User: Fold these one by one.
Assistant:
Number 1:
Amino acid sequence: MEAQMEPTNANAAAPTPAEVPGQPAGGGGAFENGPPAPAQKGPAATDRDAVRAKVEMERKLSMVKAWEENHKCKVDNRAEHKMSCILSWENTKKAAVEAKLRTREEKLEKKKAEYAEKMRNRVARIHKKAEEERASVEARRQEGVIRCQETAAKHRSTGTTPKKKVLGCFG
């Protein structure tokens, strides 16, 4: 801070109250390290002491205000830093969870594809077996038709008629 000295000679007039209240326009300031003013007697000395006390009080209040703003700034910066740390932590954890989710989804997709392949293979085996059974049934039908035609030809050549079987399973 700049310290400005007031003239200390006896001819200097005390500042008027209009110059002092909101920081003097003419560059008046605080008296920090200046030599003490000689004690004067009378109303001018009391006005000067009151003005000095008021200036000193304003200086202290401005120092308190500066300290307060400084500490508020520090608190805000600390909170911002903590918030950014929390956000960073959150983003890291989210990314890890999402990566794990993607890996699990890939594994599930792979299992799903393998299972679908197994099911297609089962369907193919079932279809193959059904085709074999159809072919077997068709072959038996053809054999039966041929046997029937041979028997009918035999009966035609001999002139006999086929006999009815009463119980087909015992005969």
Number 2:
Amino acid sequence: MTINLTMTVVLAVLYSVGFYLIMQRSLMRILIGIVILGHGANLMLQTVGGPPGYPVMIGTAPPEQMADPLPQALALTAIVITFALTTFLLALAYRSWMLLGHDEVQDDIEDRRIMRLERRLAESEESEEELETEATR
């Protein structure tokens, strides 16, 4: 099996752009990133599936000339998963737009509270260590 350099570069660009968009705070950018990653996954599955061949039906062609049906089945599964994620994220973006007027993902209040608590615990441990080192001098 030969590696197609052009297809490798296209896959790298698709995955890079998709992951970059997923890391954004806007739900629409996240949605576009998921869709681009889905296209990248489908393209990768079809690329690694090998060259085209005859249909997989016994008696129509020798087995070595038949196409591998597994990458095609995996690509159909990836299409369904991408479609499900797309509809879910569209519903989230629509609800966010209707309730808040924008689709930006905000930090959770509980996460902020936990971060403050961890910061206070770390500061108290540092102060205790400083008191212990001063006491031993």
Number 3:
Amino acid sequence: MSALPLPLKTMCDLACEASLLPRVRMAIAVVAQEVFRETADTPGYPLRWNLAKTVLSPTQEQAASMMVGLIVSPALLAVAAAADTTDPAAMAAAISDEQLLDAIRAGWNAVSGVAPAPAVEAQQGTT
């Protein structure tokens, strides 16, 4: 297993960074609206739609609970580590809005309970 790019304490500080929380709340609402525009034949749509309905107006607590998963996502963890600081506000500022939205989009299925596609289906979709 590879070493983490940041110590757990630093990741925890970033996940608790007050300046990042409002941005996470807005990004969750943006992605929820995107899910509402998906067609019903989107894989996992009922679960995806239900999560969107539930978090459309994300509470502080919902956003805070999702923040931990966002911070440890490979993309955001890499951005935070590249900031070359342990200051949570500086690391949060290094994360762009688009990177934040992409991390939420990437984790939406897991949070909503949609199981990953079996490897056979995934391979058929690429051939």
Number 4:
Amino acid sequence: MAASAATATAAAVGAGEVISVHTLEQWTMQIEEANAAKKLVVVDFTASWCGPCRIMAPVFADLAKKFPNAVFLKVDVDELKPIAEQFSVEAMPTFLFIKEGDVKDRVVGAIKEELTNKVGLHAAAQ
């Protein structure tokens, strides 16, 4: 009984929150867990020096709260260049929508309405 409660608690970790990814190992773990659970992953490719990224950060955090069944990841492109390169990220912010390892959609730029609409669209399709 205690093990199942611990598992349920572990599954809820990160739900409704933005998870900052700082290592390739963290990235792999988050993607594998989301794929196993067939969850939508929304990735915010950002940079500390990017003004529009800072504007979008609270919008992204609000979406994470509104859609707790999706996984919201934040990746600093300067910190994890290989991941940004893997997904051909050339502008910040870039938001990717990944489901079971496949990129389903992307939003490039600080476009609040488009990001909100696409999160709603892809989260509903889960």
